[in-house]
Design a protein that fits this description.
424 residues, mainly alpha, Growth Hormone, Chain: A, 18 helices, globular
Length: 424
């Protein structure tokens, strides 16, 4: 059971008869069928949150040749959306207060869909980078506000549903990395990137169909509820650094594993399948470790196992070469795939109230993505200076040690005390 469970009475429901009405007066609590429907919609939405990033790596070689981009300049295709994700995370709940939850989520999905579709007509690197920025902003808004929706509706089952949600995010990356080279054969790399907009169309349709469902709790702040501030809260920063370090490792692997494999004489299709295998292992971990987390009060042993597993995988990628590459990638995928959802689960554990938990998650993701955006640039710079990717993997090994150290700090018995520190 989770250290904290949500208390729906501190939320309002946008689906209530009036927006000033407490959620305790909403038409009814979600039924099992309602929650199953919401879970399916969350999975479809989550599938849209990585294809725009994951489709880049397997198509990087033809893309670089066509647009005359170096490794460092190509790294901006990942860095800028990650930075945009960080900046936009801070505005997610401001948009909810202004537009309402339903419109905010609809807007974010529309941004992802249109920016991805625009890649069909990209003719220069700046346009492609601009599309990446818009995609990053849309992804950030979704990721900032969806955790509050999950906690409001699923209460003590939040770890399990967060596991499904984050696993679907990684599944979207796996599908995009594996199929983008094949889609590119229908035309060129433009099509390999742009076809993923179809997923966004599906997500918009299913969200529009469910967003007014009377028994699904749509979280929103009342005008009396103060915005939570975490700038002077050390625990919030620990969580943000943990999430940012995990994100940096994930994005570095997602961006550069395919080019590194092609340097080992993998074809584009083989490199794409290797990234697909990495993300498949992340999907397995994203299901396994949140399930384990739902059975225990203290998540620290899980976090430490994940950090060590990830570290062993990247040591293998740096030292063992092609012969043990699949094993190394499998270990790295298991470690990273479990760490990402667990970072969000541990963050959400720190507050009982879904809105406060969502605001903390938005802060952690905002700072974390800004920190994590450094990793692909650093890996690209090291590749250009040292002519191989092995040194970049050693940086990820060092980052895994930092994750291990931070994991020891998250004692659930101290959550209330740590979150009682007020922002000055």
């Amino acid at each position: 059971m989770a250290p904290f469970i949500s208390q729906p009475s501190c939320l309002m429901s946008e689906n209530s008869p009036t927006r000033t009405q407490s959620s305790s007066h909403r038409p009814g609590l979600p039924l099992a069928a309602d929650l199953l429907l919401l879970t399916a919609v969350l999975i479809i939405i989550a599938l849209n949150l990585r294809p725009a990033l994951a489709s880049i790596g397997p198509l990087l070689t033809p893309l670089q040749a066509d647009l005359q981009m170096s490794y460092t300049s190509a790294s901006w295709l990942t860095i800028l959306p990650i930075i945009a994700m960080g900046v936009a995370c801070f505005s997610g709940f401001a948009l909810v207060r202004w537009l309402g939850f339903q419109r905010t989520l609809s807007l974010a999905l529309l941004l992802i869909t249109l920016a991805t579709a625009a890649r069909w007509w990209v003719g220069q690197s700046t346009t492609l980078i601009l599309s990446a920025l818009v995609v990053g902003a849309g992804i950030a808004i979704v990721q900032a506000i969806v955790p509050a929706l999950i906690k409001a509706n699923f209460a003590e089952r939040t770890p399990t549903i967060m596991g499904f949600y984050v696993t679907a995010i990684m599944a979207g990356a796996a599908i995009a990395a594996s199929l983008s080279p094949t889609l590119a054969t229908l035309g060129d790399w433009h099509q390999g990137l742009a076809y993923w907009a179809l997923l966004g169309v599906v997500a918009l349709l299913v969200w529009f169909a469910i967003r007014r469902h009377p028994r699904i709790i749509i979280p929103t702040a009342t005008t009396q509820q103060a915005k939570q501030r975490y700038l002077n809260n050390p625990r919030a920063w620990q969580l943000a650094v943990f999430f940012g370090t995990a994100t940096g490792c994930y994005v570095c692997a997602l961006t550069w594993l395919a080019p590194a494999a092609m340097e080992l004489n993998y074809s584009e299709q083989q490199a794409g399948l290797l990234v697909g295998f990495l993300t498949f292992m992340e999907v397995v971990a994203g299901l396994l470790f949140p399930w384990w987390a739902s059975k225990v009060f203290d998540r620290r042993p899980i976090l430490m196992v994940l950090a060590i597993t990830q570290m062993l995988g990247f040591i293998g990628m740096a030292c063992l070469g092609e012969d043990f590459l699949l094993l190394s990638v499998a270990l790295a995928g298991l470690g990273m795939g479990g760490t990402f959802p667990m970072a969000l689960i541990v963050t959400m554990d720190h507050h009982r109230d879904p809105l406060k938990a969502g605001q903390l998650a938005a802060f952690v993701q905002g700072v974390g993505y800004l920190l994590g955006g450094i990793a692909p640039w650093l890996a690209a710079a090291m590749r250009e200076q040292l002519a191989q990717f092995q040194y970049s993997w050693w940086v990820v090994v060092a980052s895994s040690l930092l994750l291990l150290a931070l994991a020891t700090q998250f004692n659930p018995r101290h959550y209330a005390e740590k979150m009682s520190v007020k922002d000055a």
